[in-house]
């Protein structure tokens, strides 16, 4: 469930949030992105984001047979990639944009937006979206295989 929720979060950012923000002016982009980034750090998101990794690892450990283990391990590897990209790329980019300060106090909004590098953020988010969706698919298939076993 948590992996599916994360696929939805990353997908929504990919096809809606960043597209909408990309069409906005610099002040709106910076202010809205900062507000979204502050809002997303909440217990529900953290449960889903960390839970997807934890619960998939537990599922791999408790896997009842060789038939489903490859699917669960594939999901785990895919989500480890997602977790790593998030921690190494997207979060530092988010933090740098927040560190720029309020849009009301930034003297060169265009330079701050350019330094953020939306295209890079979106490209790495696309990888997260595809990998998390694939991980969710692997976990779903593991359930199908498990159902056929018994």
Please give a structural write-up.
The chain has one domain. With 150 residues, it is mostly helical. It is elongated, with a radius of gyration of 18 Å. The chain has 6 helices and no strands. α1 packs antiparallel against α6 (118-149) and α4 (69-99) packs antiparallel against α6 (118-149). The mean pLDDT is 96. The chain has helices at 2-22, 26-40, 43-61, 69-99, 109-116, 118-149.
Task: Write down the oligomeric state.
Answer: single chain
Order of helices and strands: HHHHHH
Give the tally of β-strands: 0
Largest sheet: none
Beta fraction of the residues?
Answer: under 5%
Total discrete domains = 1
The coarse overall form would be elongated
Number of alpha- plus pi-helical segments: 6
Content-based structural category: mainly alpha
Radius of gyration: 18 Å
What is the first-to-last residue Cα distance? 22 Å
Output mean pLDDT. Answer: 96
Are there runs of 5+ residues with pLDDT below 50, and where?
A: none
Helix content: over 70%
């Amino acid at each position: 469930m948590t992996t599916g929720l994360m696929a939805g979060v990353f997908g929504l950012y990919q096809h809606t949030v960043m597209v909408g923000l990309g069409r906005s002016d610099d002040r709106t982009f910076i202010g809205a992105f900062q507000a979204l980034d502050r809002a997303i750090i909440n217990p529900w998101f953290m449960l889903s984001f960390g839970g997807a990794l934890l619960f998939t690892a537990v599922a791999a450990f408790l896997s009842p047979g060789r038939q489903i283990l490859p699917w669960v391990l594939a999901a785990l590897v895919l989500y480890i990639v997602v977790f790593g990209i998030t921690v190494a790329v997207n979060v530092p980019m988010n933090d740098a944009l927040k560190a720029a300060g309020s849009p009301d106090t930034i003297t060169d909004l265009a330079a701050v937006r350019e330094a953020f590098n939306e295209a890079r953020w979106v490209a790495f988010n696309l990888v997260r979206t595809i990998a998390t969706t694939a991980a969710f698919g692997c976990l779903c298939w593991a359930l199908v295989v498990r159902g056929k076993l018994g």
